[in-house]
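Researcher: Next sequence.
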Amino acid sequence: MNSASIQIIHASEKDIPSIQHIAYTTWPIVYGPIQGEKQLTYMLDLIYSTSSLEHQMQNGSTFLLAKENNEPVAFAAYFLKEPSVYKLDKLYTLPDQQGKGLGTMLINYIIDEIKSLGATALHLNVNRYNTKAKNFYEHLKFKVIEEADIPIGEGYYMNDYVMELKL
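Model: Next structure:
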């Protein structure tokens, strides 16, 4: 991949269909084996419906979209969690684009942005059974700081590690 062909933009409501396409393409592969179809469908509807994404964008989440040759291939979202600590809330790359450095590019872009805002740490949650993602974050020097079981409704939980990168 030629990084010169990658453009990272701040996404807006007009980019919601692209974000949804990436999420709905990626999630069944990543989470299908972990969560099962009913929970997967519930979570996608909860987090990636148009109204949910609009709400997130209007209430403090910054969405980034990575485009290669003007085609959306990955996205990320982050927000201020507490003074000087930001949370990487989402990071997904189309399956056929994984391994090309897009996730690292997005995280580095976020780090640059939040450092300029006085951030001292970046947190994220990763599913405890998603070892590929956990290994990716550890490679970028994130450390597990706690485990969290977060109820999300309908009797479902997110079983996560909370990870931190000190900036």
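Model: The radius of gyration is 15 Å. The helical segments are 16-35, 37-48, 50-58, 102-115, 131-139.
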